[in-house]
Automatic annotation (TrEMBL), chain A:
Molecular-function GO terms, alphabetical: electron transfer activity; metal ion binding; oxidoreductase activity
UniProt keyword terms in alphabetical order: Cell membrane, Electron transport, Heme, Iron, Membrane, Metal-binding, Transmembrane, Transmembrane helix, Transport
Location of this chain's protein in the cell: Cell membrane
Protein name: Menaquinol:cytochrome c reductase cytochrome b subunit
One Pfam family here: Cytochrome_B
Membrane topology: Multi-pass membrane protein
Principal localisation: membrane
Quaternary context: The main subunits of the menaquinol:cytochrome c complex are a Rieske-type iron-sulfur protein (QcrA), a cytochrome b (QcrB) and a cytochrome c (QcrC).
UniProtKB/TrEMBL annotation, chain B:
Membrane topology: Multi-pass membrane protein
Domain Cytochrome b/b6 C-terminal region profile: 31-159
Pfam families to which the protein is assigned, alphabetical: Cytochrom_B_C, Cytochrome_CBB3
Organism: Paenibacillus abyssi
Keywords attached to this entry: Electron transport, Heme, Iron, Membrane, Metal-binding, Transmembrane, Transmembrane helix, Transport
CC terms in the record's Gene Ontology section: membrane
Protein name: Menaquinol-cytochrome c reductase cytochrome b/c subunit
């Protein structure tokens, strides 16, 4: 029956080339841990994506309760943590996932670096991957402020003072992300918008480019 | 139908759409066309990846249950004693900026120079390391630079973390999220509801009592705040009677605590301490 449905859609939308690319493409022997155990180093990219998906899902659930203003932000996180059913687990996954995704991405970067996979013809994919790395750091930085506890507040003050010390453009950058003179109501809503809309949007676009290129070029060959 | 199967047009569409009727030679080869022990991504390899993913997920869930996400006390911009601490993956940058030649007059080197060089080189690695050799042991420059940066980052992170622990020890500070957890556990063991820092503080009982003036002159309020809601490391005293008895409070005022409360034995008379402790013991949430 699935075959029938597939053929019916395929006849109308010609999805076979896409399906071949997404699902029926080859997994070469040298990256398959079932054949060579040491090939587990090739799993870190996939694990990064897996945790990224968890981050997106848990983040969507967090926004059901989180209130991005300085009066209620802390109380809403506290409520989420202690009163909402499974709230502690959802928030815990988002909190620890943020660290795990950095770890996995770091290991993935090291694998690509030490296997020389960034070399021609895959330079563009490396650059896109590094941009994803920076976006992830940005997500970590902006997400850190959102619980609005002292740790979040004072770390953000330090970050902003570092941004401000950049010559010429520093004060402008600081004002832009701070939304005013002090870390306060504007900063929280800005960080929230950046964390929830701007950076995830950029992240998804870059991930699409990353995956498109890896499918187009294939995984780098065995060493 | 405008375009039947018998059409003599060279391009044949599906129905009246612009989908070209499939030309079989355009379809990429499936995995069986590739050499060696290749296998299909879906479902064969994805199933294996999913099994690994599930094991990782269980570990992840165990971690979240064993260590709930930390939450300190609500941000208080006037808190001057708080030791700022970024998330762990920024510590190497944080530590770097503490060294004399990359801070103060040279801060540009620390904020733009070194990180710009390191991350710029990483971003442009394919254009800096253009040789064909891929094996890391045949690329001594790239490999050694990466290893050196790795060691530097790990070292800076470790130094920064140790410094933070040392600061906590010197200033006798317990990180707020741990303090909160302890307070919650103590309240739980005493059969009281979990202290809720975002709730309205309990009202002051018998606010016109002379003990309040005495607390002001004895500098209690300098740390515990004039409205007794506490600040920094000094806990709020409203509702303190729920947790501590008259004798326990007197003991803390007389001898101080390990958490930074100074001893007042030589500054206040025993009667004064007794008067303050007695009044504080009246501070119960449930009092009318």
């Amino acid at each position: 029956m699935f075959k029938g449905i597939y053929n019916w859609i395929d006849e109308r939308l010609d999805i076979t080339p896409m399906w071949r690319d997404v699902a029926d493409h080859e997994v070469p022997e040298h990256v398959n841990p079932a054949h060579h155990f040491s090939a587990f180093v090739y799993c870190f990219g996939g694990l990064t994506f897996f945790i990224t998906v968890i981050q997106i899902l848990s983040g969507m659930f967090l926004t059901m309760y989180y209130v991005p203003d300085i009066i209620n932000a802390y109380a809403s996180v506290d409520y989420l943590q202690h009163k909402v059913a499974f709230g502690a687990i959802v928030r815990g996954m988002h909190h620890w996932g943020a660290s795990l995704v950095i770890v996995m991405m770091f290991l993935h970067t090291l694998r690509v670096f030490f296997t020389g996979s960034y070399k021609a013809p895959r330079e563009m994919n490396w650059v896109v991957g590094m941009l994803i790395f920076f976006i992830m750091l940005g997500l970590g930085l902006t997400g850190y402020l959102l619980p609005w506890d002292n740790k979040a507040y004072f770390a953000t003050k330090v970050t902003l003072s570092i941004a401000e010390s950049v010559p010429y453009i520093g004060p402008y950058i600081a004002t832009l992300i701070n939304g005013g003179e002090v870390v306060g109501a504007q900063t929280l809503t800005r960080f929230f918008a950046i964390h929830v809309f701007f950076l995830p949007g950029a992240l998804l676009a870059l991930l699409a480019a990353h995956f498109f290129m890896i499918r187009k070029q294939g995984i780098s060959g065995p060493l | 139908m405008a375009h039947g199967h018998n059409s003599k047009e060279k391009v044949v569409y599906v129905g009246d759409s612009r989908i070209v009727k499939r030309n079989a030679s355009n379809i990429p080869a499936d995995y069986t066309a590739y050499p060696g022990k290749s296998e299909a991504f879906i479902p064969n390899f994805l199933l294996k990846e999913w099994m690994v993913g599930v094991v990782a997920l269980v570990g992840f869930l165990v971690l979240t249950i064993a260590h709930p996400a930390p939450l300190g006390f609500q941000a208080d911009p006037t808190n001057a004693a708080f030791i700022p601490m970024p998330d762990w993956y920024f510590l190497f940058m944080y530590q770097l900026l503490k060294y004399p030649y990359v801070s103060g007059d040279f801060v540009v080197l620390g904020t733009v120079g070194i990180p710009g060089l390191a991350f710029g080189a990483l971003l442009l690695a394919p254009f800096l390391d253009t040789g064909k050799e891929r094996r890391f042991y045949r690329r001594p420059i790239a490999t050694s630079l990466m290893l050196l940066s790795l060691i530097a980052c790990i070292y800076l992170t470790k130094v920064s973390w140790d410094h933070y622990q040392h600061q906590l020890e010197v200033t006798n500070t317990i990180p707020e999220h741990i303090l909160r957890e302890e307070q919650a556990r103590e309240a739980h063991e005493a059969g009281l509801p979990r202290p809720n820092p975002s709730a309205e503080p309990a009202p002051i009982v018998a606010a016109d009592d002379p003990a309040m003036d005495l607390m002001n002159t004895a500098t209690c309020l300098a740390c515990h705040a004039t409205d007794l809601t506490g600040q920094g490391n000094a806990p709020g005293l409203r509702g303190i009677g729920d947790k501590l008895s008259h004798e326990e409070i007197a003991e803390i005022i007389t001898n101080g605590t390990d958490n930074g409360m100074p001893a007042f034995a030589d500054r206040l008379s025993a009667e004064e301490i007794d008067q303050i402790a007695g009044w504080l013991a009246l501070q119960k949430t449930s009092a009318e």
